[in-house]
Amino acid sequence: MKASPTDQNELLRLQSADTRLTQLEHTAKNLPQTKELQSLQPEVDALRARWIARTGELEDARTELKRVESDVEVVEARMARDTARAQQTSSMKDVQALENELAALRKRRDDLEEIELTVMERVEEFEASLAAVEGERAELGARVHALEAARGEELAKIDAQRASLAKDRETIAATIPTDLIELYEKQRARYGIGAAALLHGVSLGSNVKLTESDLAVIRRAAADDVVLCPDSGAILIRNEESGL
């Protein structure tokens, strides 16, 4: 393939833009905030599991408390009913039966009130435990939010640089012949780099000094011949500092 030295030299500017774009992509994927967020995820998951467990315990205790309170209300309603009946009847037999039942109901109410007190204490303990977990979650959530905000700011900066570089790349590519661009893209897709300078006999595509036989082949090539690096596969850009 033939291409003017000027067009070939422009490939270095194109490669520089592509290299920087690749670096920005790597930076975006490996931001320290992302790594820290990933390291915090197990703690976030563990706290969420604890929150779910504590919430379930509290809900169960509150449900049990409501049931006990309902039982107390039923017993007290029966006590009120029996008391009223005892005051209204003139039958000693009925009065005695009602008093026996009232005694049993008072015992039942006392037992239920003890249970109610115990359950209320459990509810308070679970509320305190849940509040502690929610406090930890709020603190961790604030850290996560701050990290996400910082990451968002960094990504916004990177996106701005990407947009600017993409525009510069488009401008550069528009000045280079299509067949040369196609070869550059082919080599870059295959080997990771499309063009590299030859500096004092060293290919900057592989950072290896070329053999004398390889350099001899390159010396025989015309200035407008497109030469590929035997090691990296990149288009070699030759100039006065190539050492040929």
Automatic annotation (TrEMBL):
Keyword Glycoprotein: no
One matching Pfam family: CT398_CC
UniProt keyword Chaperone, yes or no: no
Coiled-coil spans in chain: 58-150
InterPro entries: CT398_CC_hairpin, Oxidative_Scav/Glycosyltrans
Domain CT398-like coiled coil hairpin: 14-192
Keywords noted in UniProt: Coiled coil
Identification of the protein by name: CT398-like coiled coil hairpin domain-containing protein
Organism: Leifsonia poae
